Design the sequence.
């Protein structure tokens, strides 16, 4: 059953580039496409986590309130990542070196905040649940993140440029 839900998430992200192309090239359509995909993904993610964790009633009573807090804070951080992705899509292929550097710095900051959030919530989960259960959750979380990241990255414009221009700016 968990494989079925993972497949649904993957299929949803496979459709993301098609949805983006089907929409107008306005930022409103990119916003709505990303939000629709994100809402569907979050619903599927909770189902995957529920089935993957296979918690007892007692563990579930402790797990889900903490999970909802974690997901709320996680989604707030993900908002920043989505903004950088939208900027990249809007500015590509005319992205300047300075803009690219600023975007990279913002993504590094996002990754640092996500790692800090995971550390914080590992402790919260671990106060209520056995470490093995908590570790299982974060392993599942990592796998879901990897699938989502692969799909999002595959939907972005390619990282190509004028190699001669790139080399001349370094010399």
Sequence:
């Amino acid at each position: 059953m968990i494989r079925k839900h993972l497949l649904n998430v993957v299929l949803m992200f496979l459709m993301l580039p098609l949805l983006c192309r089907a929409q107008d090239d306005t930022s409103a359509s990119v916003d709505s496409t990303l939000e629709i995909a994100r809402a569907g993904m979050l619903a599927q993610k909770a189902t995957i986590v529920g089935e993957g964790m296979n918690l007892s009633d007692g563990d579930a009573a402790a797990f889900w309130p903490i999970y909802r807090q974690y997901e709320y804070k996680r989604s707030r951080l993900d908002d920043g990542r989505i903004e950088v992705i939208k900027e990249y899509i809007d500015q590509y292929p005319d992205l300047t070196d300075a803009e690219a550097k600023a975007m990279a710095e913002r993504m590094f900051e996002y990754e640092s905040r996500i790692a800090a959030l995971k550390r914080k919530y590992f402790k919260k989960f671990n106060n209520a649940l056995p470490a093995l259960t908590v570790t299982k959750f974060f392993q599942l979380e990592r796998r879901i993140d990897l699938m989502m990241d692969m799909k999002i990255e595959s939907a972005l414009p390619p990282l190509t440029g004028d190699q001669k221009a790139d080399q001349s700016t370094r010399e």
Observations:
- The chain has one domain: 2-157.
- Residues 81 and 110 are 7 Å apart (CA to CA).
- The radius of gyration is 19 Å.
